[in-house]
Amino acid sequence: MSTRKIGVIVGREWSWPPAFIEEVNRRDAGVSAEFVKLGGTHMAEVSSYDVIIDRISHEIPYYRTYLKTAALSGTRVINNPFWWSADDKFFGASLCVKLGIAHPKTVALPSHSYVEGVVEESLRNLRYPIPWKEHVEYVGSFPAILKPAWGGGFKQVYKVNNFEELWRAYNETGTECMMLQEYIAWEKYVRCIVIGQEQIMTIKFDANAPWPNRYFRDDHYLTEEESRLVMADALKINRALGYDMNTVEFALKDGVPYAIDFTNPAPDFDVNSLTPHYFDWVVKAMADFTISLALKGRTTPTEYAWGHLIGGAVAPVAAEQPAAAKPKAALKPGTGDDLTLINGIGPVYARRLEDVGITNFVQLAAAGPDRVREAIGATRLPIDAEAWVAEAVERSK
Fold first, then answer.
1. 32 in a domain, yes or no?
2. Residue 47 pLDDT exceeds 70
3. Is residue 122 part of a domain?
4. What's the CA gap between 104 and 261, in Å, rounded?
5. Pairing, β 256-261 against β 245-253
6. Could you tell me if residue 193 is inside a domain?
7. Measured in Å, how far apart are the chain's first and last C-alpha atoms?
8. Residue 108: what pLDDT?
9. Structural Rg of the chain based on CA atoms
10. Do 222 and 279 fall within a single domain?
11. Are 107 and 135 in contact (CB under 8 A)?
């Protein structure tokens, strides 16, 4: 078998990328890692990488364009560029409501300013003036948080204590879409690093401490119950968002974890921030996860609708078969089948089905659509459970 390849796309960060590449190559597991080098991309160009880790495409638009095309050729991109392009923090707040996860009350606000060419007639659907009193009452009065619906790095985040401070901060936000958010007077605050929608490291975090000294090792910071709640919610959020590399922040008050910030698909992995202890964990966890993905082989989309690309509907490509080939299977009940052969079931969905005992086509066919939806749980886009079951029936014949 030829050596599998992992590519890394990075910005200014200097510590994590070379440490990760060294860790992968040191293991000599049939997988090599390197920095991706680009000088232009032809349409439908086939990527040479089995896996690419994206750390910077939110700032370099060409990289995002390249990564979407790479995904079409079967490369597993972390994080999924289709998810990332569609995401925003206000959607995440609304998603938490649907997932049953505590979240500060949040209001999306019209932008203060607009790009050249947007005139008064362009804004006829907006109410003016903004009903500030109504919004402040909704979030529970002052103090409150004003922050962008997109972005990270604590940029343009304001804690405001009255209307004057709110208006002054809002007037500085330009064309950003901002959110007004309830302030949680937290008793404990943690940041969870989540890798592969499975591995979690929960760390005491103080956003008010001087950068970069915001992570603190305290293995007994959370109670056993608090830790259970935080980890369960962090996994639920990441599985709904489809992120394989993310940080999720929780503010705990009266034992309740409130999800504060969790759309961080290029999280801070710098050794000076994480401290060597957590940095080493991230390097090894990402190496474990991406080597495993690379060894599974390249994947190819089974359909090209946006919903399939964003939902991870990919199937492993056997070397001796064309990309679209989907071999029949006739295995007996009780033996395992590759559920990712079903159109629309990716590795994450397959794991969820296996977790409830659905490990082969016969069991999937017998489960029925309602049971399948229950097993998969919350997703950003609806799944086609009826089609999965129908295909499982055919494959089990």
1. yes
2. yes
3. yes
4. 10
5. antiparallel
6. yes
7. 32
8. 98
9. 23
10. yes
11. yes
- Please report, as a single letter, which amino acid is at residue 198: E
List helix spans (H) across the chain: 16-27, 61-72, 81-86, 89-99, 132-138, 163-170, 224-241, 271-295, 306-310, 347-355, 361-376, 385-395
| % pLDDT > 90, the chain | 70
**What CATH number does residue 241 fall under?**
3.30.470.20
Q: What is the largest CA-CA distance in the chain?
A: 70
Query: Do 220 and 162 share a domain, yes or no?
Result: no
Mean pLDDT value of segment 257-282: 95
pLDDT greater than 80 at residue 72:
yes
Structure tokens at 23: 């860790």
Is 317 within 8 Å of 300 (Cβ atoms)?
yes
Residue 27 has a CB neighbour count (10 Å cut-off) of: 14
CB 82 within 8 A of CB 69: no
- Residue 240 is given by DSSP the state H
pLDDT of 94: 95
Look at phi and psi of residue 40 and say left if phi exceeds 0, alpha if psi is from -120 to 50, else beta. Answer: left
- The confidence score (pLDDT) of residue 56 equals 96
Instruction: Please give the model's pTM, rounded to 2 decimal places.
Output: 0.77
Residue with more model confidence, 324 or 297:
297
Residue 266 corresponds to which amino acid? A
Q: Do 194 and 176 sit in the same domain of this protein?
A: no
* Cβ neighbours of residue 338 closer than 8 Å, sequence gap 6 or more: 316, 329, 350
CA distances from 112 to 127, 129, 130, 168 (A): 13, 11, 10, 11
pLDDT, tens only, 167-206: 999 999 999 999 999 999 999 999 999 999 989 999 999 9
Domain total in the chain? 4
- The answer on 174 and 194 residing in a single domain is no
User: What's the mean pLDDT in 86-113?
Assistant: 95
Q: Determine the length of the chain.
A: 397
Q: Residue 340 is part of which domain span?
A: 301-315+325-395
Of the three residues 34, 57, 86, the one that is the final residue of a domain is 86
Q: Is residue 97 part of a domain?
A: no
Is the preceding peptide bond at 327 cis, omega within 30 degrees of 0?
no
What is the pLDDT at residue 330?
Answer: 36
